[in-house]
Amino acid sequence: MNIQETLPEVSVPDPAPAAKNPVKNEKKRKASDLSEASASSSLKINGSQQLSHHSILYSLSVSRVNLVKEIFNKSDFDLFFDIFPSARPTSARKKQKVGFRGKTVLALVSKLKKNFDSLDLKKTLNRYCPSPSNLNKYRSPVVQPMRFRTRTCQILSFLKSIIKQLIPFEFFGSENNQSIIMDKVKDYLNLTRYETISLDFLMRGVKISECSWVAPPKSNTTHIPTSDTLKRTQLISEFLYWMFETLIPTMIKSHFYVTESNSYRNKLFYFLHSLWESMKSRYLVNLETLFARVDVLTDQKNEDGEFWRGGTRCISKVLRYSCLRLVPKEYGFRPIVNLGKRYSWNLNTDRKLQQPQISCNTILQNCYTVLKYEKANHPDYLQNCFLSFDEIHKALRDFKNSLSKDNLKDE
Fold this sequence. Notes:
Blueprint: H1 22-40, E1 50-51, H2 65-72, H3 76-83, H4 100-117, H5 121-128, H6 152-166, H7 169-172, H8 175-189, E2 197-198, H9 199-203, H10 226-255, E3 256-260, E4 268-272, H11 273-298, E5 299-301, E6 307-309, H12 312-319, E7 323-328, E8 333-338, E9 345-346, E10 351-352, H13 360-363, H14 365-377, H15 389-410
Antiparallel strand pairs: 1-2, 3-4, 5-6, 7-8, 9-10
């Protein structure tokens, strides 16, 4: 999200002794504020930026707490520029300087890092989203995954507790602003798979005048220039965007597996990583047993008495691996195989490959081209072969018409 690419940088002038020439220092400060305001007046805040759940879907890992640590495992300046990217120097030669209001924000960012160091994520998670203890006692071979999902209200309480412990209250400015932003967190969790929220929606109801950290020191509270209002709005917009685009999604995917359900279409459900891994491994054991039976059935002898090995054992040597995703149902899972996705993980060494391997669809492309050519030139060979849904519909329509004609003849 590029809310603003060129936020004006204001270097702090060297302080001169007040006893020598206070008028000159006051002129310097006013000139610096004037240049900052005039530059920011030409900025346009893009409030139509969309935020969605795409970054937290299908995050498969039992422990991803390191993702949260990566956000704060950096210097105060780097974290400051991550939250407010428009304040980042445009070139490497420029020094890391902040303006008058940047000093106040930098102190709040430093306080944010200290709060994270004293934050106990595991304790907070166990308090609001406890793991059910009856999964190991559940001996039925058919798992009911929807019984072990984490409800949205529990995740909302978990996120609210994290935000209140982590983010300094000065960033919100008032209890009213904090309450409004917490309501936006609830709206974010209730989004369906393809729904999005805009930055304008997040800013709606937030009172900028109550956020003192965006105001320059010794600013006039009775009359605020339009350029300064735009600058304050931009800083709050960048902070909210970082909060809903980086902090909250990372917290969610670090502790929960997010997926849709087979029964509720695009509605999203949350599962603790430990529970999801346990249910998934139990289901995959049954799935492997099923495929082992298929392999035994396909090992047969041909007419010449030679042993013929078919089925998945022969195909797997050519097609390698494909990505499998499990969609929870009321009883069990629905496996979905994505043959078009390139896998980038070596299962033998359990390490990530430098270059992802080609997908199964790419390997089968030549076979599909040959099959399509033979069907076009020799349709008698492949009478019952359909290469698209349109051909299936056409065959069913012709079959329906033939049945209606037969009924008319009988009458």
